[in-house]
Design brief:
The structure is a single chain. This protein has 116 residues and is an alpha+beta fold. The chain is built from three helices and four strands. Strand 3 and strand 4 form a beta hairpin. Helix 2 packs across helix 3.
Length: 116
């Protein structure tokens, strides 16, 4: 999948101005100090927050086109993220936690583990 995002979002004192392009096969890491907006940026990309201006695209599909544009809710997106606080199953390793979501959507166990 490829991701393209150019957006602004204000949350209280925090003002995000994001421009990023991630090509198929690339990995992106967001780093910065506490309060820099990393989690807020991920919330926008996952569809948990709307952009104030700009757009987010995944494989050319507009997921958030701004206040007047298209919007695909989080549960209908082909992407998401796992919060770092206790939302993972502690008895499962990373692969099985990822595979769980695929299994919940009907994928057979072997296929889910291979895709994860």
């Amino acid at each position: 999948m490829s991701l393209s995002a150019r957006f602004r979002r204000t949350l209280g004192e925090l003002s995000l101005d994001v421009e990023l392009d991630v090509a198929r096969g690339e990995t992106l890491a967001l780093v910065g100090p506490n309060g820099a907006g990393k989690t807020s940026c991920l919330r926008v990309l996952a569809g948990l927050l709307r952009v104030d201006a700009g757009r987010v695209e995944l494989d050319g599909e507009v997921l958030d086109g701004g206040p007047e544009g298209a919007f695909v809710p989080a549960e209908e997106r082909a992407a998401g993220f796992a919060f770092q606080d206790g939302l993972l199953f502690p008895h499962l390793d990373a692969r099985d936690n990822v595979a769980y979501g695929l299994r919940a959507r009907g994928a057979p166990r072997r296929e889910a583990r291979a895709r994860a």
